[in-house]
Amino acid sequence: MKNQDYQVREGRLWMAALVGLLALCLPPPVGAEKPGSAIYGTVSLYDSHHHPLKDRSNVVVYIEEVQGNQGFTPPAESPVVASRDMKFVPSVLPVLVGTTVKFTNDDDMQHNVFSLSETKPFDLGLFKKGETPTQTFDTPGLVKIFCNIHQAMIGYILVLGNPYHTLTDAQGKYSIPDVPPGTYKLVSWYRYGDSAEKDVFLTKTQPVQVDGNSASGVEVDFDLVKTHDDFQHKNKWGQGYNAKY
């Protein structure tokens, strides 16, 4: 009986070893991918005299195309753009195409959000504190937003084809985690660069290779130059604003 039990246990061990060996030889399951790696780095900003700028925030860094920019689902939780102290907060917001953005009013006065951009023209009308109108951004591109009451309120929503994007912090640092292996074009977008001509904004592109084998990720840095501030604009009727604001 003991000899028979030994033979059974030995047979099971051999079977487990054989299954493990076959698993190593078989191809990975359909849809299985190598783990992604982070793309990270620093964006350095300079003025027109090449003096470094202290604040390097709000530069959008994104991958131009991943998997044909198809099959990505917008986030279930909507990002928020607040009207606060007569400013849009955040003033720059990258979103995945199809994302619905909430617009809140944190001030004790009425505000408006409108855009005449070709990517997404819209007008939310006047709304007061406590009201939260929404807008869905279903076409890739740049959407400049304004308030029809306060000329100083200027914001930018960059609608992108995939979720691999981020914003720099005040030191110019950024990180895009879990990027699948592949060869990509990495883009930096800066609202204050490139040209004084209206509606021209600075983008720089660099190639990047992600192999999924680097625990530390891939480092890519950018140098950008600020050439102008926000442009003056008219209200939604093409008229000037009250000088009070």
Written overview of the protein:
There is one protein chain. The chain is mainly beta and 245 residues long. The protein has 2 domains: 103 residues, Immunoglobulin-like; 88 residues, Immunoglobulin-like, CATH 2.60.40.420. 10% of the residues lie in helices and 39% in strands. The protein is built from 1 helix and 17 strands. The strands form 5 sheets. Strands 1, 13, 16 and 17 form a 4-stranded mixed beta sheet that branches. It has a 4-stranded antiparallel beta sheet with strand order 12-2-14-15, with no helix packed on it. A hairpin with a 7-residue loop joins strand 10 and strand 11. The longest helix has 24 residues. 25% of the residues are buried. About 8% of the residues have low confidence.
The CATH superfamily name of the largest domain is Carboxypeptidase-like, regulatory domain
The CATH C-level name of the largest domain is Mainly Beta
In total, the number of strands is 17
Helix coverage percent: under 10%
CATH fold node name of the largest domain: Immunoglobulin-like
How much is the radius of gyration in Å? 25 Å
Number of domains: 2
Strand proportion, as a percent range, falls in 35-45%
Distance between the termini: 96 Å
Sequence of secondary-structure elements: HEEEEEEEEEEEEEEEEE
Summed over residues and divided by their number, the pLDDT gives a mean of 86
Please mark out the parts with pLDDT under 50 across 5 or more consecutive residues, or reply none: 16-34
Largest sheet: 4 strands, mixed
* SSE-based structural type: mainly beta
List the total number of helices. 1
